[in-house]
Each structure stands twice: as structure tokens, then as C-alpha cells.
Design goal:
The protein has 200 residues and is α+β, with helices and mostly antiparallel strands. It has two domains: 104 residues, no CATH class; 37 residues. It is 52% helix and 20% strand. The chain is built from four helices and five strands; from the N terminus they run αβββααββα. Strands 4-1-2-3-5 form a five-stranded mixed β-sheet. A hairpin with a 5-residue loop joins strand 2 and strand 3.
């Protein structure tokens, strides 16, 4: 009687462990799919892939600009901010080009090098942009990214999804997938030895 209870408990434990492993594999596949349709297209679409050194030529704050209205946004989402324009000398080609913070900055407003997030306090936005402008004047030379194919003549300060960041994004679903497969394999091995011992 006790042996039957132990066998039943063992089967229940194996079933739960097998369900856990399959669930982890399924979740990891869903994460792979989500990353593949959201982050990977932005990474592959970016043409600023080569790193070089940029030297600041001028960093000026122009008149206030309006944050362009995005699709689906309301008028209240449009807010004015000082337009910072940073021009740099590209070491790779020696050209004078405009610097943008990220790829997204160019899409938001191609006239400004930095587009702040919406905040209620306009003074904070102005102070932040002034600090950024002073940092560019202080640190004259820094790494930046340019388009080696020549499609885009401007440069960006940092990529939204660099190669290391993309690899780190794939790390968690990979660990979950590996753990799920390991659990399934261990359950199958346990079942195999149980059948083998029962047969003997």
C-alpha cells in the first residue's frame, strides 16, 4: 500500500515537473517571438552601425521648437522646448555633420539634436538642455556612430539597441528555454530509470 502511494506521488511530481518544463519552454518561445517583432526590426533598421570619434564644432540653443505631433497623440501632448543643435566633425570622413542623441531623435524632430520627454515643468527642460549643451562644450571629443553606407549623413551619440544590449535581451529567454529543456530531460531520465528498475 505504501509502495503504491509512493509511486503515485512520484508520478504526480514528474507530471508537475514536466508541465513546468513545458511551460518554461512555451514562455521562452513567446518571449523570442515578442523580441523578434519589436526590438529586432529596430536593430536591423538602424544604419548607424560603425563607431568613430566626433569632435564638437558648435553647440547652440536655438529658438523654442514644438515637439511634433505623433500619430494618435493629442494636441496637449505637443509642448515647446529649446532646440539644441550640435554640429561635429566626423573623424572617419572629416565632414561637418549634425549630431542626434539616438535614432528616435531624428524621427521626432530632425531640426534638434535632443528631444526631451514631456515634463510639466518647462524650467526643468530648459535647465537640462543647457546642461547638455555645456557638457558638449566641455567634452569636445567623444565616440559616436555613423552610417558607413552614406545613406544618412548625420551621426548619433548612442544607439537605442546596441549589439550588447540585443544579446542581453536574448539572454533571459535563452536561460528560461535551457532550464525548461533541462527539466524535461531530467524527468524523462527519471521515468526511464523507474521503468528499468521496475522491469528488473
Amino acid at each position: 500500500m505504501l509502495a503504491k502511494k509512493l509511486v503515485t506521488a512520484q508520478k504526480r511530481g514528474e507530471t508537475r515537473a514536466l508541465c513546468l518544463g513545458l511551460g518554461m519552454v512555451a514562455c521562452s518561445m513567446m518571449m523570442y517571438f515578442f523580441i523578434g517583432i519589436t526590438i529586432v526590426p529596430f536593430y536591423t533598421k538602424s544604419v548607424w552601425t560603425t563607431e568613430t570619434m566626433c569632435k564638437v564644432l558648435k553647440a547652440n540653443i536655438k529658438d523654442e521648437a514644438l515637439c511634433p505631433n505623433r500619430e494618435g497623440s493629442e494636441d496637449e501632448d505637443i509642448f515647446p522646448y529649446p532646440c539644441l543643435q550640435v554640429w561635429v566633425n566626423l573623424t572617419a570622413s572629416g565632414q561637418e555633420v549634425m549630431l542626434y542623441q539616438t535614432e528616435d531623435t531624428l524621427e521626432k524632430n530632425p531640426k534638434c539634436s535632443y528631444v526631451p520627454d514631456k515634463v510639466e515643468n518647462a524650467k526643468e527642460v530648459k535647465a537640462r538642455i543647457e546642461i547638455i549643451a555645456s557638457n558638449f562644450k566641455k567634452y569636445q571629443t567623444f565616440p559616436c556612430y555613423y552610417d558607413p553606407g552614406g545613406t544618412q549623413t548625420n551621426v548619433i551619440l548612442s544607439r537605442l539597441y546596441p549589439p550588447k544590449g540585443l544579446l542581453f535581451t536574448f539572454l533571459w529567454p535563452t536561460l528560461m528555454f535551457t532550464g525548461g529543456c533541462l527539466i524535461i530531460v531530467l524527468v524523462k531520465i527519471s521515468q526511464y530509470f523507474s521503468v528499468l528498475s521496475a522491469w528488473q
